[in-house]
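Journal club prep, shared notes

We agreed each person brings one worked example of a sequence with its structure written out as tokens. Mine is Sulfatase N-terminal domain-containing protein. I'm keeping it raw so we can talk through how to read the token line rather than staring at a rendered picture. Sequence first:
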Amino acid sequence: MYDTPDLVSGLAAEGYRTVCVGGVGFFNRQAPLGSVLPGLFQESHWTPEFGVTSPTSFASQVTRAEQVVRELPGEQRLFLFVNVAALHQPNWFHTPGATREDGDTRATHAAALEYVDRHIGRLFAAASSRRRCLAIVCSDHGTAYGEDGYTGHRIGHESVWTVPYAHFFLEPTAAEAAR
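Then the structure, token by token:
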């Protein structure tokens, strides 16, 4: 338990470098609301290529996370927060041949998840490249795709309230541990 108002400042007080790589508009610093979450971190990154309308958002976010890790001194502990925008709507462009008019569906959401899966190994490799790493993977909300007649995530519905969660340790490779 930290005597701080939030986890991020508590970890900073313990010597962690705190960094976020934002995705959705809550991280874009373009308005007061978009400045609150990135303002918690010592270092924050957001560009339109990380945003929800970019078909390559997660690959771009991972590239930035890899850069952050690479540039840290070896002894520096890191708290890295990545807000994965690719799973957010719109996600139709993750399905080959789909158009904006086709809209978002469970199938396009699944395609967005497959896109994230293709790149998440790079993020995990970067995060664990220096030492053992605790990874927490979760969502901030679900999305309705027609359940009880609802679509989207700005509604009070079980499909929005139900979110995935996992936590696990990533071990460094033998070569990394020898450094």
